[in-house]
Amino acid sequence: MPADAALLWAPLAWVADGWRERVLLRADSDGRWADVTAEVAAPPVGAHVLAGALLPGVVDAHSHAFQRAFAGAAERRDAASDDFWSWRERMYAVALRIGPEQLRAVAAQLYVELLRGGYTHVCEFHYLRRDRDGSEHADPLAMSWALADAAAEAGIGLTILPVLYERAGFAADALRDEQRRFRSSPAETFAAAQRIRAAARPLVDSGLAIHSLRAASAASIATLATLGGGFPGPIHIHVAEQIGEVDECIGATGARPIEWLVREGRLDARWQLVHATHSTAQEIAAVAASGAGIVLCPSTEANLGDGLCDLPGWLEAGVPLTIGSDSQATRDWCEELRLLEYGQRLERRERNVAAAPELGFASSAERLVSRVVAGCAGAAGQPAWGLVAGARADALVVDPGADALLGAPPRRSLDALVFSGPTAPWRDVMVAGRWVIRDGVHAAAQTIRERFAAAMAELG
């Protein structure tokens, strides 16, 4: 570990109980925080004195890296209407063309952008597993290793979530031809997760994923749950993203998607429900009782016209909450939280919907950041998260000269970062005790950018 990263002194830091002044942080040789101490009057000899306030890095809890090659390419319509399902058809065209080397190039560019956006770990909901013709690669994990290589090059943490994906819809018994690259059985899905974990690559871990209830049968979900019963990683699933999906699920199973998962007794603290856009009060209460978390993807949900979640309901129930970049329309967690809150304001015609002064959170930004940081460990399969002892030593140094922060009192930094932008707020970014961005510069950015441009030219 670099000597200057082993001992840090921050004039202000967002720790487990909010803003604290004069915080000393020591990272151990494994890249985790050994201790975090507030009110240390002066930096000790050898400490690296930070130029600005310190925040924990954030987990991007839902990413499809290959869709970075598609960002901005589906913002026109030639037909009478456009929705999630027509977008999906255009996305498949990209999925059918990209190979392992192109995926590595695209993912590396994405991961640098995520680091710049304040994410220090990414959960890859990875279903692009087979070769272009639907056959296995010589190494069935070729596409997974492309992601891992990209993450290593960028310096970001990674949880790969191999996806169970076996059918085109509730009434189908197989995938459509344009989905041929996604096919994976319960046994293949679990074996992939085991192999990724056994490889023990630095900063790379694995979990399990189920694409959705429409894409996997009840029997296969049960089989995967049995196989993964003792597996320590998280389990992610797309659920209740679209009204059409909810209606189809009711028609096929007699229950709404979240209701079905509850009814089948599937949920526990390992489960992460991605989107959960269309929920009832009863479903929210049941998820809260199970210990499962939700992953909200505001920019993608807006881009695809999914709808707005019941944010106050999820917050009040205490359900663990994280955010994801998903389709990569936005790669900045401040923008995700801004859109999350603004959507609620537009729908309810109120301000500061997420704030809860009765709980000590007069600030919407502070409550959202607090809840997201608290949810990161579970979503990524980490033992702890944040500026706390035992958590990985990930951190963001705020650029005090960023436009959004000019004139803002230091303790209002989160308000300014989330609701006064866009901006480039991070001066330095640390992952596992190592600086991967210093003074706004990522050392490998130019090389990665050039490979990305070449891959995009190949993809046409």
How much helix is in the residues? 25-40%
Task: Supply the number of helical segments.
Answer: 15
The coarse overall form would be globular
Overall residue-averaged pLDDT value = 95
CATH fold assignment of the largest domain? TIM Barrel
Give a structural overview:
The chain is of the alpha/beta class and 460 residues long. It has two domains: 3-56 and 386-445, Urease, subunit C, domain 1 (Roll); 64-380, TIM Barrel, CATH 3.20.20. It has 15 helices and 17 strands. Strands 6, 7, 8, 9, 10, 11, 12, 13 and 14 form a nine-stranded parallel beta sheet that branches. The longest helix has 17 residues, at 100-116. The radius of gyration is 21 Å and the shape is globular. The model has no long low-confidence stretch (mean pLDDT 95).
Describe the secondary-structure layout:
Elements: H1 3-6, E1 7-15, E2 18-27, E3 33-37, E4 48-49, E5 54-56, E6 58-63, H2 84-95, H3 100-116, E7 119-126, H4 142-154, E8 157-164, H5 186-199, E9 204-206, E10 208-210, H6 218-227, E11 235-239, H7 243-253, H8 257-263, E12 271-275, H9 281-290, E13 293-296, H10 298-303, H11 311-317, E14 321-323, H12 333-348, H13 364-380, E15 395-398, H14 413-419, E16 426-431, E17 434-437, H15 445-459
Parallel strand pairs: 1-4, 6-7, 7-8, 8-9, 8-10, 10-11, 11-12, 12-13, 13-14
Antiparallel strand pairs: 1-2, 2-3, 5-15, 15-16, 16-17
Helix pairs in contact: 3-4, 3-15, 5-6, 13-14
Give the gist of this structure:
The chain is of the alpha/beta class.
For the structure shown, list the relevant keywords.
about 450 residues; alpha/beta; Urease, subunit C, domain 1; TIM Barrel; 2 domains; nine-stranded parallel β-sheet; four-stranded mixed β-sheet; 15 helices; about 35% helix; about 20% strand; globular
